[in-house]
Design a protein that fits this description.
The chain is mainly alpha-helical. 58% of the residues lie in helices and 5% in strands. It is built from 29 helices and 9 strands. The strands form 2 sheets. Strands 1, 2, 3, 4, 6, 7 and 9 form a 7-stranded mixed β-sheet that branches. A hairpin with a 5-residue loop joins strand 3 and strand 4. The longest helix is centred in the last third of the chain and has 34 residues. It starts with 13 loop residues before the first helix and ends with a helix. 39% of the residues are buried. About 9% of the residues have low confidence.
Length: 714
């Protein structure tokens, strides 16, 4: 199952970040000094040789996910050893199976992340501590496992703290408190814990990297974010801690056997740690619970089994209950992540585009190292804490300056702050897989244009390189443009022109078949596609902000499922409505908000007609086609540049109200649009919707309508 599901797990943004750190170490870079990382270095050091052996490839994450399967096997095996030590075989096997197939545990341990090794090492250390004999040597090995876990993730510290608290409670409730063996085992455990972290600390010190490591591992996480204080959470956790400890003290006094006390330890430790993450931890994520999910499932399964064993009439019910729960977990897994789904397709296409359009050493700006094999111009990654600090001004937003200073020609704008996304929209052109490449559509006539990111550019008319003179120099199609304003010569108005970053299809080659901003062939020069150039020229009146990556992914998913272009465009309209409701900007009417979303959809390649243009008759189009090139050039020359229009549009939209995206406003717009359609059109649309909805969808819609009528008293 683990291998079959490798490509089905949803992609997590942590995966390329961990891969990037491992690749950086494989390239000879030093962690914390040359590349940002807020995890211990052991995980990246372990996988650096594999990254070097695999090389630069777009499907790298599939192979890295395959490489972490042994950690899942170790976690399951360690849980099985713990279960066999405390429960009878049938209960132990059922508990391990239920824990291994639990959705969060199964999916998160299948991703390439530090938490896989962290959870497996902790569970392995727990199994060693519970092994028969439990000599000082076993505790030394358990300490080595905990030290390795600490060298991977600092979340080992709260795990260890809650374990010590739970163990102390169990020991205090024990009728015979033997001190000497406890001290001997504690010394062995502590010695094992210090071996690996000490070795890694000496390694970092030898490279004068201790201060950067402290900055990334400790100071970064403890620095204020500027958001609301979480002091009330700590207070709530202390109250819950007192309650749990009181209940535990009452129950622990009634335990007679050593196995019962270990079961109590697992239950108390799981409860204390889970409450700490849920209540007091500043940034709770599902993967934080991986080390305690199997043990909590083990305790719950044992409690259910003991209840069923106590009831003589429920003989054989335990097998039925376990079978039903396993079937339920399998159904949830298939529903959440179907094994036939390729969840890595988007990341693979994005990485293939980056590798094709950049050379080793070129910087690529992304949120969390999605480019993997390319250095970033901005040191911190755009994870949750960084985004909060940027929002509240606790961290300097120098991303545009870094793009200019490092001559970064490729950007993946996912998760960038709004101001930086606007900078990308003004100075980069959209290419395949949501990757943006430095470039601009040149203004008509001989108007000057501005370049913010210096570098090598190619002039193109959308199909092939175009030789033109810039700043009064001899005509050429390749230019090393410095930052600042440049003068372009006049050209026939019928030919649009774009400047894109270097490398792509050779001059005179076939035009690109997709709206590619950059295409690479034998290290030649890139060209902007005709579709991109025309969109930039003819659709400037709308808001030029970029659609979010998740919107593009939903639209692509709709297209793969064979849904209509209008359904694909609905994703962009939904995004625009959400932007208005969130207050990012306003809209004069619901119709305008919908039109902006449709414009975004057209620029993203969704094949929906522009009704504002399609309504013109052929008779009206013919005279327009006969306009002279001189009149067209004069008309375009007098128009404002695209950047000026974008700024003016954005400024105007921010002054508009946000009530135009309310449910009432959208309802009025829908009724008004429907009134322009004939009864036959409305009937045909309703019948088509009923057919595509399916029986379950029609039933759900009917029930919802009935509830609405009942609520309104109709």
């Amino acid at each position: 199952m683990r291998v079959l599901w490798l490509g089905a797990y949803p992609l997590d943004s942590d995966e390329p970040q961990h891969a990037h750190v491992a690749w950086s170490i494989a390239q000879g870079h030093v962690p914390y000094r040359d590349v940002f990382d807020n995890h211990g270095p052991l995980f990246a050091l372990l996988y650096a040789p594999l990254m070097h052996a695999l090389g630069e490839r777009a499907d790298i994450l599939w192979w890295l996910r395959l490489a972490v399967v042994p950690w899942y096997g170790l976690a399951v095996f360690a849980t099985w050893r713990v279960a066999r030590s405390l429960y009878r075989p049938a209960v132990a096997d059922a508990a391990v199976l239920l824990g291994a197939l639990m959705q969060v545990f199964f999916l998160k341990t299948g991703q390439f992340r530090t938490d896989d090794a962290w959870a497996a090492l902790w569970l392995g250390s727990l199994a060693l501590a519970l092994s028969r004999g439990r000599s000082a040597g076993h505790w030394l090995l358990a300490g080595l496992g905990v030290g390795a876990a600490l060298s991977i993730s600092q979340k080992t510290l709260p795990l260890l703290a809650t374990a010590l608290l739970a163990g102390g409670c169990v020991w205090m409730a024990s009728p015979r408190r033997r001190v000497r063996p406890i001290v001997r085992r504690a010394v062995a455990f502590l010695a094992g814990c210090l071996v690996i972290p000490t070795g890694l600390g000496l390694w970092l010190a030898s490279m004068h990297d201790l201060l950067p490591a402290w900055r990334d591992l400790v100071a970064y996480g403890l620095a204020p974010t500027g958001g609301a204080s979480h002091a009330w959470r700590q207070a709530a956790y202390l109250g819950l801690l007192a309650l749990v400890m009181a209940v535990a003290a009452y129950r622990l006094l009634r335990l007679a056997t050593n196995e019962a006390r270990w079961r109590a330890f697992l239950a108390l430790h799981g409860a204390l740690y889970a409450l700490l993450i849920w209540v007091a931890w500043p940034l709770s994520t599902p993967q934080d619970f991986l080390p305690v999910i199997p043990t909590i499932m083990l305790v719950l399964t044992g409690a259910i089994a003991s209840r069923l064993d106590a009831d003589a009439s429920s003989k054989g019910a335990g097998v039925l209950v376990a079978t039903a729960l396993v079937a339920l977990e399998l159904g949830v897994l298939v529903q959440r992540a179907p094994p036939w789904r390729d969840a890595l397709a988007g990341e693979r296409a994005e990485l293939a585009t980056v590798l094709r359009d950049t050379d080793p050493g070129d910087t690529v700006m992304d949120a969390k190292s999605g480019a993997i094999f390319r250095p970033r111009p901005y040191y911190p990654v755009m994870e949750s804490l960084a985004l909060r600090r940027l929002r509240y001004g606790r961290m300097a937003d120098t991303i545009p300056g870094a793009l200019v200073a490092h001559r970064t020609m490729v950007v993946i704008p996912d998760r960038l702050p709004p101001a930086d996304r606007l900078f990308v929209a003004r100075n980069y052109l959209l290419g395949p897989a949501g990757v943006y490449v430095a470039g601009k559509t040149l203004p008509a006539g001989s108007q000057p244009f501005a370049i913010a990111v210096p570098g090598q550019y190619t002039l193109s008319d959308g199909a092939r390189p175009l030789a033109m003179g810039i700043d009064g120099n001899r005509p050429a199609d390749q230019w090393n443009l410095a930052a600042g304003h440049h003068a372009s010569p006049a050209r026939p108005a019928a030919r649009s022109c774009s400047a894109g970053a270097r490398r792509g299809t050779a001059a005179g080659g076939p035009p690109p078949t997709e709206p590619a901003c950059v295409r690479k062939a034998h290290g030649r020069l890139p060209i902007a596609s005709r579709a991109m150039a025309q969109a930039a020229l003819t659709d400037r009146r709308e808001d030029m902000t970029m659609p979010e990556k998740k919107t593009l992914e939903r639209a692509r998913k709709d297209k793969r499922e064979g849904k209509a272009p209008s359904t694909q465009a609905g994703e962009f309209v939904k995004e625009e409505i959400e932007h208005v409701r969130e207050g990012k900007h306003g809209a004069r009417s619901a119709k305008q908000a919908i039109a902006i979303g449709l414009s975004k959809a057209r620029r993203a390649g969704v094949d929906i007609p522009d009704k504002s243009k399609s309504g013109k008759s052929a008779a009206r189009k013919k005279p327009a086609a006969k306009k002279s090139a001189t009149r067209k050039a004069a008309a375009k020359k007098s128009s404002e540049s695209a950047a000026t229009r974008r700024r003016a549009t954005t400024k105007a939209l921010k002054k508009e109200g946000t009530g135009t995206a309310s449910k009432q406003a959208l309802s009025r717009q829908a009724h008004k649009a429907a009134s322009h359609r004939t009864a036959a059109d409305r009937s045909a649309a309703a019948k088509k919707a009923a057919r595509t909805k399916g029986a379950a969808g029609r039933s759900a819609a009917a029930k919802k309508a009935a509830r609405t009528r009942a609520r309104r008293g109709h």
